[in-house]
Specification:
single chain; about 180 residues; mainly alpha; 2 domains; 7 helices
């Protein structure tokens, strides 16, 4: 009998279970149930925390005690661009385009918060769309500038200089992408 196996015993998170076939209903417990303790030694003494841990493993957020940082960053970035896009009134097609572009970027090389980059992408897509006529270019006069986009920039704490700079970078990168370079 051979003791060798073709796979390693400790595996990393390759893909998360996006269909979430396993349902662990710990979140629906009342506080009394969740704070009960196991009669013996477990990894987590409280039952609620133990089942929360199992649910995070099932969702692909962690492997044992190690969090899947790449997956969590991806989910956070996806949610940022989708939430901002829906708040600014992007169409489904524009949201998909914004998400695709945003997730393809190495945001650490931009030198600013990723929320700012998401804002610039949404503003560019709104301005470049011919069907809605919303003016979001930083050089647009204050009278014609889209109020929703302006309010989003203010709520994010962006300066006029950051808005102009990021919009220009996004515009340049979109044009490069369209040309295929």
């Amino acid at each position: 009998m051979s003791t060798e196996t073709e796979s390693s015993t400790a595996t990393g998170i390759v893909q998360s279970d996006t269909s979430r076939e396993t349902y662990i209903g710990w979140a629906n417990w009342n506080r009394r149930e969740a704070n009960q303790y196991w009669p013996a030694d477990y990894v987590y003494e409280r039952k609620g925390r133990y089942y929360e841990h199992l649910d995070e493993i099932d969702a692909g957020k962690k492997n044992g005690f190690w969090y899947n940082e790449k997956y969590l960053r991806h989910i956070t970035s996806r949610d940022i661009i989708n939430n901002l896009g829906s708040n600014l009134g992007l169409t489904n097609e524009q949201c998909d385009k914004a998400e695709s572009f945003f997730l393809s970027q190495n945001l650490s090389k931009w030198g600013v918060q990723k929320e700012y980059v998401a804002w610039a992408i949404c503003a560019y897509l709104l301005h470049s769309s011919e069907m809605n006529g919303r003016k979001c270019h930083p050089q647009t006069s204050d009278d014609n500038y889209d109020e929703q986009v302006l309010e989003a920039a203010i709520s994010l704490g962006m300066t006029q200089r950051e808005c102009t700079s990021l919009y220009g970078k996004v515009e340049h990168k979109f044009r490069q992408r369209e040309r295929g370079t």
